[in-house]
Write the structure tokens for this entry.
Amino acid sequence: MAKKEDKTNALRMLDNAGIAYTTHVYDTDDGMIDGVSVAKKVGEDPEQVFKTLVTRGDDGNHYVFVIPVAERLDLKACARSVGVKSVAMIPQKELFPLTGYVHGGCSPVGMKKKYTTVFDETIVLLDRIIVSAGRVGMQVVLDPEDLLRITDGKAAPLTVS
């Protein structure tokens, strides 16, 4: 568990749900906050470190997709997974007002509102998953089943083959 002053909304939600986790804190002074760089900084396999991406569907709703950091989102597969014709990435300036998180620190846990959340199907192969803890410079490590449960998430194929 993180110290009280280090708590993000995501970590508070995990605590309130009684979900066990650990955190990784990493240096951001070099400006390298892309997912693969973060995985290296925290000494983790990029296949276990996931990034959180927020989209808008053609139905006007927002959808959250969480995929391994080295992978690319397949927007058509994402749309299929939530039953809409298409989804598009939201402009970066909309991220904070929608989620309460900034680019590079967006967690699938603890957003301002609960959005439909879909994880790449590889989540079911993992014994632990690493996602943003809700702040640039901090990652949270937890059981994938706990992450699926707290986000009401599901798994589906989401990345470009």
Q: What stands out?
A: The CA atoms of residues 83 and 153 lie 15 Å apart. The mean pLDDT is 93. Helices lie at 9-16, 35-41, 75-82, 95-99, 144-151. The chain has five helices and eight strands.
